[in-house]
Amino acid sequence: MLGVPVVVLTTFIGTSVFATLQDDIDTSLKIFVGVISVTAAVLASLQTFLRFGERAEKHRVAGESWAALRREIDEMLALHPTYLAARGDPKSYLDDLRKRMDDTAALSPALGDRKWDLLKEELPVTKDSPDAARTADTA
After folding, report:
1. Are 96 and 69 within 8 A, CB to CB?
2. DSSP letter (8 states) at residue 123
3. Per residue in 73-87, is it b (16+ CB within 10 Å) or e — as a string?
4. Whole-angstrom distance between the N-terminal and C-terminal Cα of the chain?
5. Which of 2, 17, 41, 72 allows an S-S link to 47, with CB 3.0 to 4.6 Å?
6. Is 109 helix (H, G, I), strand (E, B) or coil?
7. pTM for the predicted model, two decimal places
């Protein structure tokens, strides 16, 4: 979101600097180029400070981890009961699965309240849904 404006503004500034080197350029144009230059610097700093790339990578890794767990659960549900018995004790398997889900949740970046609100608009929240307690707490 900030990357494209930074590239456009810095390119504009780079070409404009050469145009303003002439003495007959209007002072207001020089001020405009200076303001755009400062804006580009601020946007580049924000992009670096907010670490959007790093945050996106964390969300990607978390999504892959959750997808792997979901596929494993789907596989277990699809197995014939005779094969399930060969996997060992169901209680120990579920305990291990719960631990891996907890570990994945701990390493996953949190969604902000704004994202939760957008999701609640798309997906209806009922009193029995997991988000009902969160909605009741904020009401």
Report:
1. no
2. S
3. eeeeeeeeeeeeeee
4. 32
5. 2
6. coil
7. 0.54
Nearest to 9 by CA among 29, 32, 49, 37: 37
Alpha helix segments (H runs only) across the chain:
3-19, 27-50, 52-78, 81-86, 90-107, 113-122, 132-138
The amino acid at residue 139 is A
CA-based nearest residue to 5, from 49, 51, 41, 55: 41
Which two structure tokens, joined as six digits, stand for 21? 């080197």
Round to whole Å and give the CA distance between 18 and 137: 58
The dihedral region occupied by 129, where left means phi > 0, alpha psi between -120 and 50, and beta the remainder, is beta
Quick one: CA dihedral 129, 134, 53, 10, positive or negative? Answer: positive
